[in-house]
Amino acid sequence: MKKNDHQNSKMVRKTKDIISIIFLSLVSLLALTFCIGLLLSNADLRRRIEAKTSELDAIENEGYYTTARAEQMVESAVAETQSETLESVRNTFKEELGSKGSLSAIRELFPDDLIVASNGEYRFYPIDENMDRHMFKAEDFRESSNGKLDYIGPDESVQPKFGIMVSRYNGEINFENVKSAGVDFVMVRAGLRGSSEDASLVEDDFFRQDINGALAAGLQVGVYFDSSAINTMEAEEEAEFVLSLIAPYEVTYPIAIMIEASDSPDSRTINLETDDYSKIIDAYCSKIQDAGYKPMVYGNILSYVEYIDLGIQQKYPVWFSFSGDRPYYPYHFDMWEYTRNGYVYGINGGANFIMCLADYSNSEETDD
């Protein structure tokens, strides 16, 4: 009995060993199969990568690029373009500075703005597209040897009149010679108001002499008053003063109010705002208009962008001052003072030249 138990136990152990061997063999076989599959998978992946690489190389050789490569090329092109543009702007600005000076150069680079220099800084004022604009270009004008500008543009309807503005600063004037030099009209300073503590109204020392001389020579005449009014009452007083001065004379050209604000701390107009100037101009011009004359507003570019609002510029004829060979005022205008250093026979020293585009040749034209 014991012998049979021993034999059975031995057979059980052998059976277990065989099962373990079979199990281990199966595990090894599975592991081998997995490894073989992994190797085959890696080989296939490698082949795919090599195929894709070859495909990309072929695409690039044919002129096509990957997204990453395309983005890199775009960034490089943008950087290069920005550098070239900046260099071009610098060179252009350098050339403009060399030939025209800083303010003119800046104006050339910003044609959609009116730019003025004031108190050591440049100020930019966008041009209002809703305002009536003139269409003149720099090439429409040609300067003669004496500083006079002639219109040579394509619009045959433009027939400018040649005028001068005179005051005591011009001294004695031979108006017969002025007439023979081709001058059509004269804007005579009637007077001024003191700009500081003494705010009295003063007749120009040469007003009567100048207006009599101009009319005697057959020149047409307008006048202007150098205003320092600080309210509408003073503006009306100035208009009445001018009307009393011109009463004996045949004045067919406009009666202008001069607005040139002063930066002097002692000036009585130093604290005036745009709204104040609008009321002052309107009060003066209304008086002139009610008396049967043509009112006008005179100012430089700084005056027109900082002190004279667009409503006033639309309501009354504009006479602006800007030295140069093109009108640096974008809106419609009647008169342009373009130089203070012109030469005209009959006047000693520099003369202020004016181009007038409106027809004030008869009194009917001045009536509204």
Report on this structure.
Strand 1 (113-118) and strand 2 form a beta hairpin. The chain starts with a helix and ends in a 12-residue tail after the last strand. It has 368 residues and is α/β, with parallel strands linked by helices. The chain is 44% helix and 19% strand. It has an eight-stranded mixed barrel. Strands 1-2 form a two-stranded antiparallel ribbon. 28% of the residues are buried. It is elongated and about 155 Å long. The longest helix is centred in the first third of the chain and has 60 residues, at 2-61. The model is unreliable at 363-368 (pLDDT under 50). The chain has nine helices and 13 strands.
Largest sheet, described in full? 8 strands, mixed, barrel
Whole-number radius of gyration?
Answer: 44 Å
Helical segment tally?
9
Give the N-to-C terminal Cα separation.
150 Å
Assembly of the depicted chains: single chain
**Whole-number average pLDDT?**
85
| Helix-strand sequence | HHHEEEEEHEEHEHEHEHHEEE
In total, how many beta strands? 13
Shape: elongated
Question: Beta-strand level of the residues, as a percent range?
Answer: 15-25%
- Strand-pairing-aware structural class: alpha/beta
Strand order of the largest sheet: 5-6-8-9-10-11-12-13
Blueprint (SSEs and pairs):
Elements: H1 2-61, H2 67-100, H3 102-109, E1 113-118, E2 121-126, E3 141-143, E4 149-151, E5 161-166, H4 175-180, E6 185-193, E7 201-203, H5 207-216, E8 220-226, H6 232-246, E9 255-258, H7 274-290, E10 295-300, H8 301-306, H9 310-315, E11 318-321, E12 335-342, E13 351-356
Parallel strand pairs: 5-6, 6-8, 8-9, 9-10, 10-11, 11-12
Antiparallel strand pairs: 1-2, 3-4, 5-13, 6-7, 12-13
Helix pairs in contact: 2-3, 6-7
